[in-house]
Amino acid sequence: MDVYQPAGASQPAPAILLWHGRGPDERDVLAPLARAAAERGIVVLVPDWRPDAPDGGRAHLRESVAFVRQNVAGFGGDPERVVLAGWSLGGKAAVAATVNPTAFGENWRPQAVVGIAGLYGSSAPSTGTAPIDDLRAGAALPPVPVWLVHGTTDDVVDAERSRELRTVLEEQGWPVTLHEVTADHAGVVLTEFVPGRDRCLPSTVEQVIEAGSVTVDVLARAAEVLLIAE
């Protein structure tokens, strides 16, 4: 797990647990996003996890939550103000863990959730269920703020998937905000896919920086809501 800490913080800061996508052990892909969010005064924790594990990575996701709850204070974060966020498959896992009351054995839920370029109509590694199905089932959970970001030129996961989730959340009375940006699946997290490396790497393309900066702003706003709520 990589931990990104804000400089000069004098009091416990809100924290974000940020899950990467389908590639196993790819926390480095989210380094540009995490670093930029930390510059906004947030402690950001990015763990490796393995979607190719026999359980789809659920144990790794659960362990990362337990680690953050137990250790975030030591990194300058507030364990009572944790946002759960994820990109791609990690975004689906994050939203699923928020809307499903059985997601984690300790009955933990985040204070807010950010789903970045996620596909929400199929089973998630964190729960084994589809977030949209769980919402439509009407589980008795107090709603928390849901923030969604999606690229309009995403050819991996169509932006319609986030629009669909927003509609269902609104129907169920959850507070939700969707930001659509001109970016593809990688650009929304400040990266570009490099075929020769078969990996998303940091990008310096102006359009990518502009789109990814919106995602950074969403992460910061999701965390700031916790401070305002106090």
Give me some keywords for this one.
230 residues, alpha/beta, Rossmann fold, 7-stranded mixed beta sheet, two-stranded antiparallel sheet, 6 helices, 9 strands, 33% helix, globular, disordered C terminus
Task: Give the secondary structure arrangement, pairings included.
Elements: E1 2-4, E2 13-19, H1 31-38, E3 43-46, H2 58-71, E4 77-87, H3 89-99, E5 112-116, H4 131-136, E6 146-151, H5 160-171, E7 176-181, E8 191-194, E9 199-202, H6 206-229
Parallel strand pairs: 2-3, 2-4, 4-5, 5-6, 6-7
Antiparallel strand pairs: 1-3, 8-9
Give me a quick take on this structure:
Helix content is 33%, strand content 22%. By secondary structure, it is an alpha/beta fold.
Largest sheet, spatial ordering of strands: 1-3-2-4-5-6-7
What is the C-level CATH assignment?
A: Alpha Beta
CATH fold topology: Rossmann fold
Mean pLDDT over all positions: 93
What is the assigned CATH homologous superfamily? Answer: Alpha/Beta hydrolase fold, catalytic domain
- What's the total count of β strands? 9
User: Count the helices. How many?
Assistant: 6
Approximate helicity band: 25-40%
Structural class: alpha/beta
Residues in β-strands, percent: 15-25%
Radius of gyration: 16 Å
Name the shape in a single word: globular
Number of domains: 1
Task: Name the CATH architecture.
Answer: 3-Layer(aba) Sandwich
- Helix/strand order, N-terminal first: EEHEHEHEHEHEEEH
N-to-C span: 29 Å
Major sheet size, sense and barrel closure: 7 strands, mixed
Task: Detail the poorly predicted runs.
Answer: 226-230
